[in-house]
Write a structure and sequence with these properties.
Elements (H helix, E strand, L loop, with lengths): L1 H29 L13 E7 L8 E6 L2 E2 H10 L5 E4 L6 E5 L12 E7 L2 E3 L7 E2 L4 E8 L14 E2 L4
Parallel strand pairs: 1-9, 7-10
Antiparallel strand pairs: 1-2, 3-8, 4-5, 6-7, 6-9
Length: 163
């Protein structure tokens, strides 16, 4: 007699579990909004531009952002944090000028903009390097010989696009 009363309950519990699983799966599959990080300090990227003139203060900004360094620079420009110029598009883009300061000098004395992410020299272009909340992007105006001084961990570390 006990077995006869337990079987319908077990069947109902299995059906309820199956309906719950299917409901949750369909809610996830039908969601048209991709998951975004919550706003707040955890989604901010620190942007620092060290200008070459001794009297010019560095640009420091925290921007809610997730994407490529190129997109970060565009957001900073849109937010009136800085101005910049680039050559090329997408993965081939190159930042040539920040705050009206572009390449200068010749040969070994040539200076240009170099960037580091989280204290490591970037070894990929701005259109490829991705950053997100908690990351720090630092721009420096240096010669090729001095490029590693832009990174906190300048000894040998470089960073590329995350896989």
């Amino acid at each position: 007699m006990l077995k006869e009363t337990m079987e319908p309950r077990v069947i109902m519990m299995k059906q309820f579990a199956l309906i719950t699983i299917l409901t949750v799966a369909s809610m996830v599959a039908c969601s048209d909004k991709p998951a975004q990080p919550e706003a707040g300090a955890g989604s901010e990227v620190q942007l620092r531009v060290e200008l070459p003139a001794a009297e010019a203060a560095p640009i420091d900004a925290k921007l809610e952002f997730q994407g490529t360094v190129l997109d970060l620079m565009q957001k900073a420009s849109d937010d009136k944090v800085l101005t910049f110029k680039k050559e090329g598009e997408g993965e081939q883009a190159l930042i040539t000028t920040i705050q009206g300061i572009g390449p200068s000098g010749e040969g070994d004395d040539s200076k240009y903009w170099i960037y580091a992410v989280n204290g490591k020299m970037a070894n990929v272009g701005v259109g490829t390097m991705k950053v997100s909340g908690g990351d720090e992007v630092r721009w420096c105006y240096l010669t090729y010989e001095n490029r590693k001084s832009c990174a906190d961990n300048a000894a040998t570390e470089e960073t590329g696009a995350p896989e």
